[in-house]
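Fig. S4 source data, part A: sequence.
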Amino acid sequence: AADHAEVYLTAEMTPWDASTQAGGWVDTLYLTVPQTTTVALKLENANGAFDFKREGEKWTMDGLAEGEAFNESAFTSMLNQATSLRMMGPLGKEAKPEYGLDKPSATVTLTTEQDGASKTYTVKFGPKDSKDKYVAQSSESPYHAEVSAYVGDTFANKKREDFISPPATPTTSVEA
């Protein structure tokens, strides 16, 4: 209230009640996709394109070579991030060149199916910036959002090997 010079003292407010971070004033859930209806996920980054499909209750990865085993646990961790994407704060509706979304470092495409209807969600991540953060743009929001390096790295740095279980090592027993 610029037209009032009064100052008030209270013991009812703490520093945490007046956060300086945007996440303290807005809902940080940027994108939520029903995981139970998600049937496909495609991740594209500098390391390639990776396609995953749900068959029944199990997820599979396209392009496995003979003898390779899909690491569903590693995939599930990424799926959880993709279907419940949190932001640090909104950046506005204007697409700025510095966001780097014309050449994204990662693109995630989720497909859901429910009652015979299919829906596709897409999220693009710009390159990591000098503040160690990424800009994200969801097909479901007019807003660009700033996300943490942890979230952005989850998609931008994944390699094929991250989704392959290491081969089982034979155990030997020593008889005494």
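Fig. S4 source data, part B ends here. The radius of gyration is 21 Å.
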